[in-house]
Amino acid sequence: MNTQPSHKLWRYVTYIPSVYAVLGFITVMTSYSQNWGGAPKFTTVIAVFFCETLMVISAFAVLSYIKQRQRSTHAKKILMLNIALILTGFFTGLYLFLGL
């Protein structure tokens, strides 16, 4: 019998950027509404940090798509979501960074 082990782990790795984006959004909105650091610039620094790390985590998720053996339409939709997160993190981080 010639069976290869299924790599179900890689399917769940592709969901991590979405969870991280929600966590980052909640943290940034909380820091903005609670006025952490006493100035809005502190919130901007936190937002730039989350944008940059979101880009890296999403890029790893795109690479994990390559490791999947079974590529369904659902996996391709998650791939497009991760690519959209990379682009959103890039442009948002660039906008915030240049606004400092």
Written description of the protein model:
- This protein has helices at residues 8-13, 16-33, 40-67, 73-99.
- The chain is mostly helical.
What key phrases describe this protein's structure?
single chain, 100 residues, mainly alpha, 4 helices
Brief description of this entry?
The chain is an all-alpha fold. The protein has helices spanning 8-13, 16-33, 40-67, 73-99.
Elements, N to C (H/E):
HHHH
Structural class from helices and strands?
mainly alpha
Low-confidence blocks of residues: none
Mean pLDDT: 85
What portion of residues belong to β-strands? under 5%
What radius of gyration results from the CA coordinates?
Answer: 17 Å
Show the helix and strand layout.
Blueprint: H1 8-13, H2 16-33, H3 40-67, H4 73-99
